[in-house]
Design a protein that fits this description.
The protein is mainly beta. It is built from 3 helices and 35 strands.
Length: 485
């Protein structure tokens, strides 16, 4: 059943608004990071971060809720990833220096001391074609890697110069799975190919892989048994739109497997419908019953205006939401949060620079849609930030805990100045409990908050800051700021 929604925003007055006082800062906490840090919440007092120090080296560090480093473990390799695995930490790096193959190595670390307990090469990947790698850990229950070999050739030649990169990127030549036991012994097997475009690979809470294929407007979701290439369930349904093989992958479907019910899948997509209107579709798929359901919201110009008009400002110093470019809307976040679903939508546009040959990236405010488990839209709220910066997009953080969504975004406050906006959204009432700028004292005025590297603790959080160029993989120093929840 498809429920058409053209809903007007109802935003309640917030419970409270708290200003953030000047917060402690650790200058140059990490010198010469070449990428945004990866963060893993270990417990209420300690986070683990992985920082790339160059093409061949990375550091894994334990940081407590006082911005103190408990231990540091240097590792070899690039593209550092850190995850929980059983009661330990697994760090995964890739050696991409060889001409023909990329070597993936896994390290098991003691979370108390950082000592490397085990190191093992778990994968060699040929470089003929671009391969997409995803890591799944089931909140520490397992360690699995999916590999999708695309049709995009790594060796540049005349044939690829004039080919459509979206078409070759969307082509799937091979799908492999690597599963590691607690001694990092890898088991590899292949999954079968289906008709259409492989839109998503994920794994459920039990370690079953789930692949979603689209052929025009036909969707097939296939679930494979854990440790097996045998399909144990599938769902076939028609989507409320027709997908184009060559469409921009950054506007493709988002699929998530429920962490509460392994039989449940959810999807979100933004597309132009048959009436050439921008539409947001939320889907629910039940493997137990085979039932599918969709909820839709149509973003007409009048609807966008009504959303902005209905917004009740809770901080008089902040600008009203900027949300008027319906053709540039995209999904920036889609995830379960307790017994709700959260979808975040913003508009991204570019405009030529007046002072150089580059371009500026502009991003609107974020519309947060809150749905119940049956994908009924409960409430909508705005994170009233916006920015324009040269050529890159800035991160936004969404962190769920105990019925509340903690959100941190970058907001341009004049000239090249950026400030972090911190908000606490009560998902049951739909009200902001906190919404304000974080202090920028002792931090660079134009430095963005690397919000997707936020370290979260029981009563506080640590926000990393760095020069804009770190988002383009340039080496920069990272500053930390300690804030209270």
């Amino acid at each position: 059943m498809i429920k058409k929604i053209l809903i007007y925003l109802t935003l309640l007055t917030p419970l409270t608004v708290f200003a953030q006082n000047d917060a402690p800062v650790s200058k140059k906490f990490y010198k010469g990071a070449s990428a945004v840090p990866k963060v893993l919440i270990l417990n209420d007092q300690v986070n683990i971060i992985g920082v790339q120090a160059g093409k061949k080296n990375a550091d894994v560090m334990a940081v407590n809720d006082h911005m103190e480093t408990l231990w540091t473990t240097p590792l070899t390799g690039a593209e550092i990833t850190i995850e929980k695995f059983k009661d330990k930490i697994v760090a995964i790096t890739t050696d991409d220096e060889a001409k023909d193959v990329a070597i993936t190595t896994a390290f098991i670390l003691d979370p108390k001391t950082g000592k490397v307990l085990l190191e093992k090469k778990i994968l060699e990947t040929k470089k003929d074609y671009l391969t997409e790698k995803q890591i799944f850990n089931g909140d520490g229950k397992y360690l699995k890697i999916s590999l999708r070999e695309t049709g995009f050739k790594n060796t540049l030649h005349i044939g690829t110069v004039f080919s459509n990169p979206y078409k070759t990127m969307n082509e799937t030549r091979d799908i492999s799975v690597i599963e590691c036991d607690d001694q990092l012994n890898p088991k590899q097997y292949k999954l079968d190919l289906r008709d259409g475009t492989l839109e998503n690979i994920t794994a459920d809470i039990n370690g079953n892989f789930i692949l979603s294929w689209i052929n025009q407007n036909h969707l097939e979701i296939v679930k494979y048994g854990a440790g097996s290439n045998t399909a144990i369930a599938s769902i076939k349904t028609d989507l409320p739109y027709e997908a184009n093989k060559n469409y921009d992958p950054f506007h493709s479907l988002y699929f998530i497997s429920s962490t509460a019910n392994a039989n449940m899948m959810y999807a979100a997509a933004i597309f132009s419908n048959a009436d050439n209107k921008t539409e947001l579709s939320i889907g629910k798929f039940d493997f137990a019953t085979g039932k599918t359901n969709f909820t839709e919201e149509i973003f007409t110009s009048d609807h966008l205006k009504s959303l902005v008009k209905a917004f009740v400002p809770i901080n008089k110093k902040m600008d009203a939401p900027q949300f008027d470019s319906k053709k540039s809307l995209g999904i920036r976040y889609f995830k379960e949060a307790g017994n709700t679903l959260v979808a975040s939508v913003s508009a991204r546009t570019t405009e030529p620079s007046s002072i150089s040959s580059g371009a500026w990236m502009l991003e609107s405010s974020f519309l947060l849609n809150i749905y119940d488990a049956d994908i009924n839209l409960k409430t909508q709220q705005f994170l009233p930030v916006s920015y324009s910066v040269p050529e890159i997009t800035l991160p936004t953080e969404y962190h769920y805990n105990d019925g509340k969504l903690y959100v941190i975004g970058n907001d341009k406050t004049g000239g090249m100045s950026l400030k972090a906006v911190y908000g606490v959204l009560n998902l049951q009432s739909g009200q902001w409990e906190k919404l304000d700028w974080l202090s920028k004292k002792n931090l660079g005025g134009g430095d963005p908050v690397l919000s997707n590297s936020t370290m979260w603790f029981k009563n506080s959080f640590i926000s990393p800051y760095a020069n804009l160029k770190i988002l383009a993989d340039a080496k920069k120093d990272i500053d930390l700021q300690l804030n209270t929840l």
